[in-house]
Amino acid sequence: MNILEMVNEAQAKLPERYTTMSREEMEQRVREIKEKFGEKLFIPGHHYQKDEVVQFSDATGDSLQLAQVAAQNTKAKYIVFCGVHFMAETADILTTDEQVVILPDMRAGCSMADMADIYQTERAWPKLQEIFGDTILPLTYVNSTAAIKAFCGQHGGATVTSSNAKAMVSWAFTQKERILFLPDQHLGRNTAFDLGVPLEHMAVWDPHKDTLEYKGNVEDIKVVLWKGHCSVHENFTVKNIENVRKQYPDMNIIVHPECSREVVALSDYSGSTKYIIETIENAPAGTKWAIGTEMNLVKRIISQHPDKEIISLNPFMCPCLTMNRIDLPHLLWALESLENSEEVNVIKVDKTTARTALLALDRMLALA
Length: 368
Known about the structure:
Blueprint: H1 3-10, H2 23-37, E1 41-42, E2 44-46, H3 51-54, E3 59-61, H4 63-72, E4 78-80, H5 85-94, E5 100-102, H6 111-114, H7 118-132, E6 136-141, H8 146-154, E7 158-160, H9 165-175, E8 178-182, H10 185-194, E9 202-206, E10 211-213, E11 223-226, H11 238-247, E12 252-255, H12 261-266, E13 269-270, H13 273-282, E14 288-292, H14 295-304, E15 309-312, H15 328-339, E16 346-347, H16 351-367
Parallel strand pairs: 1-4, 2-3, 4-5, 6-7, 6-8, 8-11, 9-11, 12-13, 12-14, 14-15
Antiparallel strand pairs: 5-16, 9-10
Helix pairs in contact: 2-15, 4-5, 8-16
């Protein structure tokens, strides 16, 4: 069953009354329920969530960080994950069988994760084995489905985050001569390039055509990049950088490594969400920054640092649309359902998939 089928099967419709409640009324009810459940309820909120949701988060952070924190909260029976589907899956994998992970809106997916499904991957693997033999190791960004993580675990690979990608790619090259990097080609390309792999030694696998995009001798290939990307970060362009350089010549440009190679190369700094947040926090007052990442986070950083001049690298950028599926009405609905002894939008990864996905996660965590 793919993600779309699971969503259609599991998605319950938001009751109409939540669309007519005032924000003040909803906020008050969330506070009441949080107080009522106490330690039995834990609400992780991803950095890209709306402020109306983040205000009620017990912890904010990146996806894996939040899943780990959720697992540490063993007193919490309910994990109401304010993020997207793959994040809730990881939380379910890392938490105990007694804990219940809930995604307030099952439509909160990730376009990048959806660009590599398990059927495409299982189709691609024998073809890559035919080309390269037993010289290739799969790595997957944590922004992927549990099934893709399980595939990597099964084949000796591991997961990576944007923070530890260099360490994990370096490790992978101690295991095999080549790597397959799923599902974000840009993070894979930027990471491998920073580690000294020439661009001409990188190929792209097109999962729709089942073909390897490469001109040259395949023996020279060291990295096979899955043809996937983040729909948000791919919208930062070289033109955006040129405009900022022209209008604000003394402004620092900092971007996420999910941006294209061209954008990263022209920026002053690049790194994970945590890196971006900490870089701005530690920057002197009066410094100027153009940030290339998700708009909800950029706006939050701007409000938290009035002593600095901060703009979005792309002034026309929209927030992550799927992440924004999680809103105050859906959060309240999930919580009131629990209050009424009902569990809506439960995320449950089957035991076989969870076990092999955990292999990939554990290989990464052992090196962290």
